[in-house]
Specification:
Helices cover about 0% and strands about 40% of the residues. It has about 150 residues and is mostly beta strands. A hairpin with a 2-residue loop joins strand 5 and strand 6. It is elongated.
Length: about 150
């Protein structure tokens, strides 16, 4: 699975104070272990998103992070693909897997940060889960998620 980062800021947005410039967003991929439909438990894996001021110093502006639906075009569920075969999964905001991380539409939520006293870096975990019992063709499945940072 690939998480791609993009940043968008309104015309009046302020960047990182002290260090100057815009915050950067880096994402680590969510890599699931080998999946077997006969397992009675879901497949789970984590990644993270890191928002940082240049050189890791300064005060971050307030921001919101949204995730796209991916190549399947839907949030519930998202789909990884291998050719025409699809494997349902989703990305959540917590390890309880109760809130789907999306763009705030269709029952999804975004993550936000209010600039109070950050030291230039904020990290969010991404929690991926594949429901059990999906009998699909064996192979390597993937998706591409766009991460948007709005500040």
């Amino acid at each position: 699975m690939v998480l791609c980062a993009s940043c968008a800021g309104p015309a009046l947005a302020s960047g990182c104070t002290l260090a100057g410039g815009a915050p950067t967003l880096t994402a680590t991929d969510i890599h699931f272990a080998a999946y077997s439909a006969s397992d009675s438990f879901p497949g789970e894996a984590n990644g993270n998103l890191r928002i940082q001021c240049p050189l890791g110093i300064g005060l971050l502006p307030s921001f919101e992070i949204a995730l796209s639906a991916g190549v399947g075009g839907t949030f519930s569920p998202r789909h990884m693909a291998m050719g025409a075969s699809q494997l349902s999964y989703n990305i959540y905001t917590t390890s309880g897997y109760s809130a789907i991380w999306g763009d705030g539409t269709g029952g999804t939520v975004t993550q936000s940060f209010s600039a109070l006293l950050s030291l230039g870096t904020v990290t969010y975990a991404t929690y991926g889960r594949i429901p059990a019992g999906q009998y699909i063709a064996a192979g390597s499945y993937g998706d591409s998620i766009t991460v948007t940072l709005m500040y």
